[in-house]
């Protein structure tokens, strides 16, 4: 029995260095060494990194600023989001604290620089009134700590003063502890002399050290060594001291300007992920001029991302500017393009050089002025090529290292301009969309108390478009809950005007045919495949071109449908993580955002679509449909499509017979949930729509309630039939022609007993889905469909015999999972020679396979798991030279495998629990994953050492395993299942690659010895005698699971609880242990108070929960509950949000988790634990313990040392 768990956290990073480190670990989806055509499409997880506080990039300098004498540009390309430095939030007393030796500089250099500071409004600490003694006093220490910047003016006699050296030591301490900025000025002295205490400087230092305590001297020496490494200003490098002073004063002034964090971007969600992706496109370390496109739909946040990016990096460029709403100030159509472009250039140059009234006479001025300048230019909302021609026609217009950012909804504009570096802005995840909405509705990232449910509903109406979330949230901010409830009905049926205006602008720019396609998708085909839409609409619209245009205008997007063939090709190249960059499959899923869809449906009320020179309307939305169907008056409108969804409608639908007679010629019918609140007569009346529409091309009715379709139904023109979850017993009486049918989905029609005989001659059929048709018995004798691509009979448990499969050369997937009555596969199955995936899991009556299996030479995945009566495989399987994955888990009667074959493409072979298999499977030398747990194999051939790809090798323990020493070096997963085994053999410690150890029902096992350090997973299940763990766990990634090991002694329990684990640990217990000194014996949250003096920047905790079953009828192992862990500060600000999926879940067991909270400034934290399946489980007890960074071995005391609990001196509130 295994254990699985998913733990994902969204946390704010503590420092910019942490972020940089995380950035280095990030998977790079596109390398700059690859082809230039790079489009970044972030994963859903890329939105999971949240920025609770956003500041200007200059604030990074609070922790890593290094001044350089010649003002060289930084080569760092990092855009990682800086977190607010600890020092930013402090109350400052001074801008600058200068440390200097008065005799050297007070009347000369220092007096001049102090005057320059005064003129620039820089407040400098003056020590004239402080009485000097042998050591610096508390007043001076407070002045150092209270200054934003410390300037160390190092001169020849600086080290002759113990006072100066004490100052320096205190400054370097503040630099290390609170990130204080330290600037260095080397005045007539070399940094080497400072660092090594040599020359005249060294002599002065030696003299000062005489008679001083060794500890004090070492502290001074360390401070001098550290300060000498800070690059600063060197007086020897300046001919003019006045210029040097002006440069220092200007830099200090700029630093102070940057010191105050920008609040312009407070509350942004997901910005860190955007910056991570853009960093790879920007490549700020390169001197080339680069143009980057930021592409996405209206309102998704392109401008916000661009503004933030400008805010982050502008100080690295000589000139910077953002030009907003370019499309709004550029006429469409543009009849005088020259004047329009001249005006744009004038505006750009004016902003770039901060010259408000600049006038340019021709289009060559801007590039002449900027060609030697390193600029950062944002061109926002570009929608025409002429705009780019005016502002950034060629990269040579700008100086080396320049970056031009272009935001647009139209990918075509970027491609036409030859821009290959494009970042696609994706929609946020559900959780982040909710946070965006809450930030605007409540001023925080979670709703106010009592608003959770209604906030989620309103957020769902807005979808995930950030602008929509912002506008909706802002409109509701400050309103009471009853006001929210009164607003809901209107929100459900109407759009906000601001969003509508944005979408309207894009819609109006489309040609008529593209508008029609937009309306079709909004009303009928959102979420459908491009292939299906082309087939259904292709006779009267240029769908391919229209989809291309709508996608480029960001009005739709596509989800990639990556085929199995593509996945296998990538797997074979060991690049599974880059599957998204394989060649696109022909079919994609069309996605239209909720607000765009709603706009389209609103527009369809008044907008016609032309079909063969006739105006038609699309009938969608229960309100409009009810009005039309209840209208007895004469109405000459003609309708081509209907989409009726009565899922939430509780009123009875009235249908007029006259209306039904008037409404006909529907070609697209989509009806959902008619049965929910409607009487039978409504169902029958709606069937008349089918009767009056003889040319239906797509019929989707969910769930259809009658036992068959009406005899008058004409399926001749039918291309798609989707009757999932219906009560059909048969499709219709008699024989009907289905010559155009391509997609048939009858899945979950549990009463369906037979298919019409005409199925066997459906030469156009591509997909036939009969999943979960559990009453289906009769299938046609053969299927002759040379276009068939997918056939699923999953869970058709009464099917005994399959039809002969003939001429199915395009069949890619055949799914027969859990066809438990199926006795054999047809011999003709071998004609499916392009089949990629064959799934016959759970075909428990299957005894043998036909030899024609070997004719399926393109097969990549073959799954025979739990074919419990299968005895052997045919030798022809050796012909499957493209087979990548062979799974036979649980084939309990399998005795042998073919010999003398070598499947060169086989990478995964899973024979787990093939309990009768005794011979080692030598069917391929190219395997990378070999799973043999639960087999009767008692040998490991020496030849396995030549399997160069073998990375995972799972094996069951047997007594003579030690006689195969070569096996001990390659086994990665060892299973011990024995009631007699009393100890884990000592040679297990020598298994250098062992990562997982599983102990099932080892009832005589009393203790575990020291195990290999490589181990990262221990699962000991129902080891009834296990008491001791005579070991320690040194792998920080380890996972520890001890279900039903009730005899574990206290020392073993302490070891499990206090070991730092990768995910979670579990062990038996009837209560949360006392070492978790903050406990709630009932309830699911804890509030703890911390001593302010003990607060570090980052706190680590161990959390413990115990689950209680609510539904007593449910088995312990019936569901894997997920537990949401939230940590908040006193002000209700969310700090950490984690989700843990637990398995196995048992009562009388506890689960412990590692938690980390960064940037803690409050003295109160609230921990909340929420199970997702509240109807089945609840939190019985919970506890919190602060963690120390240390290893915990068997020899450690089970009781916590005093220092572990030093911050937990206050009460726990439950």
UniProtKB/TrEMBL annotation:
Record domain TIR: where: 92-256
Superkingdom, natural source: Eukaryota
Catalytic activity, as annotated: NAD(+) + H2O = ADP-D-ribose + nicotinamide + H(+)
EC number, as in UniProt: 3.2.2.6
Gene Ontology biological process terms, A to Z: defense response; response to other organism; signal transduction
Name assigned to this protein: ADP-ribosyl cyclase/cyclic ADP-ribose hydrolase
UniProt GO MF annotations: ADP binding; NAD+ nucleosidase activity, cyclic ADP-ribose generating
InterPro entries according to UniProt: AAA+_ATPase (IPR003593), Apaf_helical (IPR042197), C-JID (IPR045344), Disease_R_plants (IPR044974), LRR_dom_sf (IPR032675), LRR_R13L4/SHOC2-like (IPR055414), NB-ARC (IPR002182), P-loop_NTPase (IPR027417)
Pfam families from the UniProt entry: C-JID (PF20160), LRR_14 (PF23598), NB-ARC (PF00931), TIR (PF01582), WHD_ROQ1 (PF23282)
CDD domains (alphabetical): TrwB_TraG_TraD_VirD4
Record's keyword terms, sorted: Hydrolase, Leucine-rich repeat, NAD, Plant defense, Repeat
